[in-house]
Amino acid sequence: MKQQTKLSQKQEHIEEQQTQTNLTKEFASAEELLRFDAAQTAVPPEIAQRLQKNSTDIHPPQLRSWWKNLFGG
Q1: Containing domain of residue 52, as a range?
Q2: Are 34 and 11 in the same domain?
Q3: Quick one: DSSP state of residue 43?
Q4: pLDDT value at position 20?
Q5: What is the DSSP string of 24-41?
Q6: What's the pTM?
Q7: Is 62 helix (H, G, I), strand (E, B) or coil?
């Protein structure tokens, strides 16, 4: 019984250390933090489909030539 208790205490200690190691991440910038969080977060399929659909609907604005802007063409 004592061996089991010592073993379980040792295992709890190891798990606690791993948890603390996982919680103490430092990031150089906010962007790095957001990228890390995005990699850890699963996007629901419904939202992924909506994002895909909406991103295909976006068209970049057509650029006018400099001379059309200047002369109003």
Answers
A1: 44-73
A2: yes
A3: P
A4: 61
A5: ----SSHHHHHHHHHHHS
A6: 0.36
A7: coil
